[in-house]
Write a sequence for this structure.
């Protein structure tokens, strides 16, 4: 009986999680549609970086643990400042990552462990082969803070065209 009760509580908690995170998707989509965000992705895409170039930058970023001038630029650009301002309005938002059409960082509010997000589910699922989709990761416990963290990813659009992705980290325990 205890196992059934425990399982029921876990299912209830999972349902509460999904509902709470689903409730913020429109807010995340609104952030992704901000003109400064869309413009930054358009500008990055216009550079026509190759995947080979992105992977070279990524390898350097990883080797130097993000201690590269580009990291500071991506945290200080207009889109990053706009995202940081929007992020700070909600205690449950902890980090924002804006990517181009190949998954390269365009703007970040906190240092990322790598430059290229294109091989990660948060990009792959939100990009959805260029069609765009909402992706919500399963919550994971942050070992340093004990917080339950999840990522919500949405496409960035220019009109109807998907041009990049936007991911925001969410402290799930603060949604309830």
């Amino acid at each position: 009986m205890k196992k059934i009760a425990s399982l029921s509580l876990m299912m209830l908690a999972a349902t509460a999680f999904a509902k709470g995170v689903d409730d913020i998707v429109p807010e995340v989509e609104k952030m992704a549609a901000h003109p400064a965000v869309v413009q930054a992705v358009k500008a990055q895409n216009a550079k026509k970086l190759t995947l080979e170039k992105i992977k070279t930058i990524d390898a350097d970023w990883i080797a130097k643990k993000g201690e590269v001038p580009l990291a500071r630029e991506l945290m200080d650009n207009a889109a990053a400042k706009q995202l940081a301002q929007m992020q700070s309005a909600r205690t449950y938002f902890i980090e924002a990552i804006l990517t181009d059409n190949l998954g390269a960082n365009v703007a970040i509010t906190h240092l990322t462990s790598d430059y290229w997000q294109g091989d990660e589910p948060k990009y792959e699922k939100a990009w959805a082969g260029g069609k765009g989709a909402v992706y919500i990761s399963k919550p994971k416990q942050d070992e340093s803070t004990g917080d339950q963290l999840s990522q919500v990813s949405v496409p960035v659009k220019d009109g109807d065209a998907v041009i990049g992705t936007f991911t925001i980290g969410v402290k799930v325990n603060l949604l309830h």
